[in-house]
Amino acid sequence: MIVTPSRFFWAYSLLAVSALLASCQEQGEALIDRKRRENEADIQAYITANNISATNLENGIYFFPTKTVPNAQAPATGDEVRYHYIARRLDGVIVDSTDIAGNVPASVILAENATTGITLGKYAAILKLKEGEEGSVLVPAFADGGRVGTLLLPQYSPVRYDMRIVSVRTENEQIRDYIRTNNLTVTTTTSDSVRVIKTLVQPTDSAAITTGKNVTINYTGYRLDGSTFDSNNTGSFRVTIGTTNSIQGLQSGLLQMRAGEKGTIIFPSKVGYGATGTGRGAQRILPYTPLRFDIQVVKVQ
């Protein structure tokens, strides 16, 4: 015989499960609050024991400088910052670091709330340091990027980051360095900071690209680290100059070209994808990212 549970049974079971979940949530919240208090006490004890003069930043992060360079370049929103760090537990055990011996720093583009690829503690330290400077932050676990925890650094442990700023570069400095490193010869620099490097030039009787023209191109789009985010090599991508069907930087560069020409167009994010970026996955372009397009002008109509 099959017995069908009564509605009362299901209602009672649902209430019981709901009560259990509520209880777990309260316990979880209490645990987080307790760990925050313990982290704060541990950090304060560390500061006292090591006679550190530290500034209390937001989110319970404490900062203290260890090397200053007063006239150095300070980072600002939109800048690329390259940095080295050593992460330690408060008992001194090193749990992580950049490749300092090989001089392979980490990097981040400062984009305020849209910044990615860095924990809040490291980000807070970068905002307090200039190029060439060094400093440390003491970071409670809850401000360290939702860490899961490892054998070396348990989930609720505070951490110390020793930071050194290797370089601070604006977008224009990134573009300048990229052009120099890759031995590119700029043909034209436009008023909106677009650089055009022609690699195949056509005679002046070739069709010029002007506002209102429909331009068919082949292209490959790169970030300045060399990674590709988009391409079209079928001769079917059409740009209408003066409309919004393509970004300003690309159009500004095309206005310097003619039918049949090839070239490279490099431009800052102000005429690209700006402070928001675009795309997902391999096509993701982060905020404040300068871009390179390699172009072949197939047709001008």
UniProtKB/TrEMBL annotation:
InterPro entries attached to this UniProt entry: PPIase_dom_sf, PPIase_FKBP_dom
GO molecular function, one term: peptidyl-prolyl cis-trans isomerase activity
Pfam families: FKBP_C
Alphabetical list of SUPFAM superfamilies matching this protein: FKBP-like (SSF54534)
Catalyzed reaction equations: [protein]-peptidylproline (omega=180) = [protein]-peptidylproline (omega=0)
Domain named PPIase FKBP-type: residues: 78-169, 212-301
This enzyme's EC code(s): 5.2.1.8
Residues spanning the signal sequence: 1-22
Superkingdom of source: Bacteria
Keywords: Isomerase, Rotamase, Signal
Keyword Signal: yes
Annotated PANTHER family: 39 KDA FK506-BINDING NUCLEAR PROTEIN, FKBP-TYPE PEPTIDYL-PROLYL CIS-TRANS ISOMERASE FKPA
Family affiliation: Belongs to the FKBP-type PPIase family.
Protein name, entry field: Peptidyl-prolyl cis-trans isomerase
Organism of derivation: Spirosoma montaniterrae
Classification of source organism: Bacteria, Pseudomonadati, Bacteroidota, Cytophagia, Cytophagales
